[in-house]
């Protein structure tokens, strides 16, 4: 599950919709001109009964202008997006190879430079009492339905392209593992799962998926499904789980309706992305995105004439190491498609937000009409602001990337990092800051088609400066049954300065933190997590507290 904006903005939108309805009922037309001036045209004769609503319009004038403006923009953007989608469908005819998405290009290059590279999504689907032959039919049908499951990737004419095959590679076989007569079932099952997590797929020849049928005992049977992130994301995994169950029932019962045909596939999405980037609507959004990021950087006086943090210089050094004197004339232009071929050294820290604090977070989320995810972003943003005193905190987080409804049921890597530029103002209440986060998330989600590697290339900035913090949030609707205790490892991933994956279980929130040891020590990371827990307690004690008061209270606690 990817983090979504909370419902505070929904309430604001509902209020504007209700106000527009009242105006309509009073026969009052409302519009905004090119200078964003609000115009009211009163068509009725009953002017005595409109004083209250006119007063309400005055109070909500700016919100009403913003709402009507966003509707006009959304209408224009959506119309343009769908026009481009229809044009894309006409353009993408039967070809030998097709465009690859920015995410696919980045992942292909990472595999190109790092031969033994596994970044796999692995999950299980339970099919109690199932028949092996029917399971095979289900997988065959799934592969037939989704082209990306029988797609390979290659470099052609200095471009990374995808090739859709009429059938999956001959090397694809569904393994069968019978554990019914085995004592150490769980141990073997865990090993099989980890083997698939570490499996190195062949991008050029395929297959890029693997399936194992597991017969656990007489009553429990299912499959382990693995695919490289190159062709999938977590939403894709959910689609596959759902469709496997539906297809199995279809083959068993025969009376259920088969899954509807897909009008679009992953290759159409890739083509739409590149057409949209080149469109006037896409260019306008990219310019707005870059401007927001530049304003955030300027707010902290980070960039200037003598700034040395160059993405191009760093990547060129990495390419010289990776390729040596190899001729690059037939290779793609790597700039804007990859970063951190050789990530900085990192370490790993795991800790938990325990059940009592989760109850506090839930109550706070209800009080603020927010979400747990936005609460966590706010808490970490404030903690990092307190540490570094940057006026603007830039946090990368995942967005599903499925910007149009037509992409909802397609398998592929759509998810993309977006960069939230958050101004932390000390006179803000937490409620105001959460509103700012919600608005920022909603706006920035429009830019998910444009990956941060391209922003880095456009601005010639490294990720350490552009978005030093990464936060991701998932929900597992089950209890965490392992030991809830801190864990520190000296080996980790230093891709981001500070990257935290929150996984919410029924009884805790697990924090899996990879951090760059050039920027943080283990003690500093541990202190940051403790500070976040203290902030939760302070907010629960005084929900309407201002940000600057939080710092005073926290200093007292530290003393």
From TrEMBL:
InterPro entries: CAT-like_dom_sf, Condensation_dom. Coiled coil: none annotated. One of its GO terms (biological process) is amino acid activation for nonribosomal peptide biosynthetic process. It holds the Pfam family Condensation. Residues 95-550 form the Condensation domain. One of its GO terms (molecular function) is phosphopantetheine binding. GO terms for cellular component: cytosol; enterobactin synthetase complex. This is Condensation domain-containing protein. It comes from Chryseobacterium taeanense. The lineage of its organism: Bacteria, Pseudomonadati, Bacteroidota, Flavobacteriia, Flavobacteriales.
């Amino acid at each position: 599950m990817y983090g979504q904006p909370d419902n505070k903005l929904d309430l604001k939108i509902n209020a504007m919709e209700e106000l527009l309805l009242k105006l309509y009922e009073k026969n009052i037309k409302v519009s905004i001109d090119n200078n964003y001036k609000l115009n009211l045209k009163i068509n009725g004769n009953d002017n005595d009964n409109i004083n209250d609503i006119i007063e309400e319009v005055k109070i909500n004038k700016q919100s009403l202008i913003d709402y009507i403006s966003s509707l006009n923009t959304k209408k224009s953007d959506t119309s343009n997006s769908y026009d481009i989608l229809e044009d894309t469908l006409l353009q993408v005819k039967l070809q030998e190879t097709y465009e690859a998405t920015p995410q696919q290009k980045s992942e292909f290059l990472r595999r190109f430079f790092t031969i033994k590279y596994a970044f796999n999504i692995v999950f299980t689907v339970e099919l109690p009492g199932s028949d092996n032959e029917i399971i095979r039919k289900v997988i065959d049908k799934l592969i037939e339905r989704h082209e990306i499951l029988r797609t390979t990737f290659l470099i052609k004419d200095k471009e990374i392209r995808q090739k859709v095959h009429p059938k999956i590679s001959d090397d694809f076989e569904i393994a069968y593992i019978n554990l019914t007569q085995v004592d150490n079932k769980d141990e073997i099952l865990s090993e099989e799962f980890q083997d698939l997590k570490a499996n190195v797929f062949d991008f050029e020849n395929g297959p890029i998926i693997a399936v194992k049928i597991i017969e656990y005992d007489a009553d429990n049977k299912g499959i382990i499904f693995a695919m490289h992130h190159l062709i999938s994301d977590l939403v894709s995994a959910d689609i596959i789980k759902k469709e496997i169950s539906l297809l199995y029932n279809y083959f068993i019962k025969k009376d259920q309706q088969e899954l509807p045909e897909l009008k679009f596939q992953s290759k159409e999405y890739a083509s739409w992305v590149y057409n949209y980037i080149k469109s006037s609507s896409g260019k306008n959004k990219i310019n707005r995105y870059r401007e927001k990021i530049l304003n955030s950087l300027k707010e902290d006086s980070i960039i200037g004439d003598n700034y040395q943090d160059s993405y191009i210089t760093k990547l060129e050094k990495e390419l010289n190491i990776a390729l040596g004197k190899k001729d690059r004339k037939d290779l793609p232009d790597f700039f804007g498609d990859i970063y951190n071929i050789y990530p900085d050294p990192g370490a790993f820290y795991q800790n938990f937000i325990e059940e009592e604090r989760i109850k506090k977070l839930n109550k706070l989320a209800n009080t603020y009409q927010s979400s747990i995810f936005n609460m966590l972003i706010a808490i970490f943003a404030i903690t990092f602001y307190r540490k570094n005193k940057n006026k603007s905190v830039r946090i990368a987080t995942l967005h599903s990337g499925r910007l149009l409804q037509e992409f909802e049921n397609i398998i592929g890597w759509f998810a993309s990092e977006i960069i939230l530029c958050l101004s932390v103002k000390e006179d803000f209440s937490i409620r105001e800051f959460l509103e700012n986060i919600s608005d920022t998330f909603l706006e920035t989600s429009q830019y998910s088609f444009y990956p941060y590697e391209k922003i880095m290339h456009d601005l010639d900035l490294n990720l350490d400066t552009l978005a030093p913090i990464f936060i991701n949030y998932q929900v597992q609707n089950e209890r965490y049954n392992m030991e809830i205790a801190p864990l520190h490892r000296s080996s980790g991933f230093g891709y981001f300065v500070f990257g935290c994956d929150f996984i919410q279980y029924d009884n805790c929130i697990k924090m899996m933190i990879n951090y760059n040891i050039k920027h943080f020590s283990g003690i500093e990371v541990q202190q940051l997590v403790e500070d976040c827990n203290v902030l939760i307690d302070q907010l629960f004690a005084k929900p309407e507290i201002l940000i600057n008061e939080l710092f005073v209270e926290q200093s007292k606690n530290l003393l």
